[in-house]
Write a structure and sequence with these properties.
alpha+beta, CBS-domain, five-stranded antiparallel beta sheet, four-stranded mixed beta sheet, 18 helices
Length: 425
């Protein structure tokens, strides 16, 4: 060792520090690389991505070659630095050189390369795979020994290595990933709508029974014709006396044929009706979408366990969960009206889920589906006069009560009120 020129020893130390930085950066970049983007690049037949993917298939062997190389360069560089210290100074300099090398290795062989690799994993992982792949073959016997011992010890402490590489995303994790992916807002809302279908039932998007507009077949034919001309629904419910006695739905095409016919009678109208499709309440939304597709229907009646009608579900209502509201109206809906004090006047018949979506609130959705139903459930009675109440972080005041239904309510967030009061103080 004394015969080796000093400059060669110093160059060797610098090279070993550089190699240690390479192994440190490779380790971080391989572990930090986005696995889903990597799979996409593999499908795009990116050669570097394929090489990295093959290395990651056997993580234990990949870490083995990296750690063997890193520890070897660490140890050898420290040993050479000790030789240089003894040659230039004396044995007394060994401790100082050890401290100096520790600082150098931490900064230039650990922190700096790992920070860069964490920020730019693909830029480091792809080039490093060119060297790691042949190294894994050269060091294969040693890696096999290290992996064998490591894997068996790992199994002894109860870790299943066979399932360790399964990185399937749960729906909740995929939702979070989507929200932070930078996807355009409109596309994000559509994709989130698809996820929402797993948690929604037909009751969440139905047209409530009290809002159903239809044709009473017991009316005079002249009145019925006039009503049909005014109603622009794609499917018009037709009933006798009450909506609970529905006879069927009149489609837009059949309505046009009926109105265009020379002879108009109740019997002819009934002949054009299609029998209703009955849907059990709380049917999952995705299942009902499949039912519509298989049956060729576009509308159904939601019924409870006793066969009483709860409301109407349409294919359009389900699709609006994904693509947003489908309407040809240019007039802005006035079901949510912001007030100067930061509160909102909200139509009592609005679905709570729709209120939450449009105002980014978190009103409870586990019970009643409409705002009116939520208020009535909370106060456990039908109020004679307007009342105020608090539900979680929201303050609600009824504004208009009619026919035992809350038509209009004022809603505001309590937290925001507290923050405003604190600012004024």
């Amino acid at each position: 060792m004394n015969e080796i020129p000093l400059w060669i020893l110093l160059a060797s130390i610098a090279f070993l520090v550089l190699m240690s930085a390479f192994f440190s950066g490779s380790e971080t970049s391989m572990m930090a690389i986005n696995r889903y983007r990597l799979k996409h690049l593999v499908k795009e037949k990116n050669k570097s991505a394929k090489r990295v993917s093959r290395l990651l298939e056997k993580t234990d062997r990949l870490l083995g070659v990296i750690l063997i190389g890193n520890n070897f360069t660490h140890t050898l560089s420290t040993a050479l630095a000790t030789v240089v210290a003894i040659r230039i100074w004396s044995d007394n300099a060994v401790l100082a050189v050890t401290v100096f090398m520790t600082i150098i290795m931490i900064i230039f062989a650990e922190v700096m390369p790992k920070t860069i690799a964490a920020l730019k994993p693909e830029s480091i992982a792809f080039p490093s795979s060119y060297l790691l792949k042949p190294l894994s073959k050269i060091l294969s016997p040693l890696i096999t020994l290290v992996s064998f011992v490591s894997n068996n010890v790992t199994k002894l402490i109860g870790i299943d290595l066979d399932n360790a590489n399964k990185d399937e995303l749960k729906p909740e994790e995929l939702r979070t990933l989507l929200q932070t992916s930078g996807v355009p807002k409109r596309q994000e809302e559509m994709l989130m709508g698809i996820f929402d279908m797993d948690y929604l039932s037909v009751n969440d998007v139905m047209i409530p029974k009290n809002e159903i507009i239809g044709i009473d077949l017991n009316n005079e034919i002249e009145d019925i014709v006039k009503q049909l001309q005014e109603i622009d629904f794609t499917y018009v419910p037709c009933y006798e006396d009450t909506i609970d006695n529905i006879q069927g739905f009149l489609s837009l095409n059949k309505k046009a044929e009926f109105l265009g016919s020379e002879i108009k009678s109740i019997r002819n109208l009934k002949d054009e009706l299609r029998e209703p499709l009955f849907v059990p309440e709380n049917t999952p939304l995705y299942k009902q979408l499949a039912n519509f597709q298989s049956s060729g229907r576009r509308v159904g009646l939601i019924v409870d366990e006793y066969g009483d009608i709860e409301g109407i579900i349409t294919l359009r209502s389900i699709l609006e969960i994904i693509v947003g509201e489908i309407t040809s109206e240019s007039i802005e809906k006035m079901d949510i009206m912001p007030q100067a004090d930061g509160s909102y006047l909200v139509d009592g018949s609005m679905m709570i889920r729709e209120v939450n979506r449009r105002l980014e609130w978190e009103l409870p959705t586990e019970g009643p589906k409409t705002l009116s139903g939520l208020i009535l459930e909370e106060i456990q009675t039908i109020p004679d006069t307007n009342v105020g109440l608090s539900i979680e972080n929201y303050r609600i005041e009824t504004v208009l009560i009619k026919d035992n239904v809350i038509k209009l309510a004022k809603v505001e967030i309590i937290e925001e009120i507290i923050e405003q009061d604190e600012e004024q103080e």
